[in-house]
Every structure is written in structure tokens, then in C-alpha cells.
Amino acid sequence: MLTAIGWLGILLLTTGLVLGLGALKQPGFFALLRGGLVGLVCLSAGLLCLALRSFEAFTSSTVVAEVRCQWVGPKTFNLTFVQLGNGVRQAPQTFRLRGDQWVISGGIVKWHPWLTALGLSSYHKLTRISGRFANLEEERRAPPTAFDLNGGADRIWWWFYRLDPFLPFVEATYGSAAFVPVEPTMLADVLVTSSGYLIQRKPH
């Protein structure tokens, strides 16, 4: 959503344009100069506000889940997943996974930059949690362990994927995944940015 600084930028830009155009109708050089300078200041301030809003939009991230891991055997661990959304913590889910790393993945619909700059966040949905081996040979030998999140496949994502070449407001539709090693001493936050998922670890 457009934040206060974005609305302020639009207001200042509009005010600057109105003052600038109004100054052109004023008789006398000094009236024109005064109106033009005030309009220019408003336009500059408005552009600065929108630039700050754009920077915020492209660099912001939101925590969408928390993850904890606990070893229960050789290359086997329990992963506890808590999804967050709109300030609500959902009930924890626990998954038994194999490997020495865990992966979280989902679908991303990235809007064109001008929509992101105005405050529209990328569409996303977490769809899968899975185990992973750092060693490729171990990965090939072990049966995969993976579980659906949020009902798995996302029909909205598939709809955008098929149509995005024809949608001028969509920059790209793709899957995004992030993985880290299993660390029982760490609490991991899963974050979504304008371009995909990332994992941020912290001691607990």
C-alpha cells in the first residue's frame, strides 16, 4: 500500500505543478519568478519523497514464518514451522525431514517496478518445505522428504505464470527457494522481499 511518504510526495508534486502552471498566468516578472520557485521547491520535495518511497519499497522485507530445527537421528531432524501473516501466528506444524539442510520455497509474482515503487508488494505464497543434503551423492541416494504448505500448488500463481507475457503490470512470475544448514541453536525467520524469499538466522 502507498505509505504516508508516498501520499506526501504525490501531494507535493501536484501542488508544484499547480503553482508552476499558475505562475505562468501571473503578470509581471517577479510574480512569475516567485510562483515558479515555490512550484519548483514543491516539485523537488515531491520527487524526493517518491524516491524515498521507492527505495523503501525495493529494499523492504516482511517476516512470513519462523523455523526451528532439532536433530532426532543421523541426518534426520524435526522442523517446526510457524507461519505469520497480518500479525497472526498460526499453529505450529512439525515435519520429519532427512538431510543436513532445509529448504523453503514458494511462488512469486513480481509486479513492474512502477507498481512496486507505489507500494504494491509482490504476490507470494509459501508452498513447500523439504530436506536437503549438502553432499550431492547423499542427495542422490536418499529418498526425498518434502511437505506441502498452504495446500501446495497455487492456482493464482499458475494463472499469472501462463498470462504474464501478456500482462503489462507483471514483470516476472517464478518460483523462489532458500536453504540453510540445520542448526538447532538457531531460530530462523523466513522473509519475503520484492524479489523472493530469504532466511535470516538468530540465536534462541
Notes on the structure:
- By secondary structure, this protein is α+β, with helices and mostly antiparallel strands.
- The chain is 35% helix and 40% strand.
- The protein is built from 5 helices and 10 strands.
- It has helices at residues 4-24, 29-59, 113-117, 136-141, 155-163, and strands at residues 61-73, 76-85, 88-89, 93-98, 101-111, 123-132, 146-148, 170-181, 186-193, 197-203.
- Strands 1, 2, 3, 4, 9 and 10 form a 6-stranded antiparallel sheet that branches.
- Helix 1 (4-24) packs antiparallel against helix 2.
- The chain starts with a helix and ends with a strand.
- The relative contact order is 0.16.
State the gist of this model:
The chain has 204 residues and is an alpha+beta fold. The protein is built from five helices and ten strands; from the N terminus they run ααβββββαβαβαβββ.
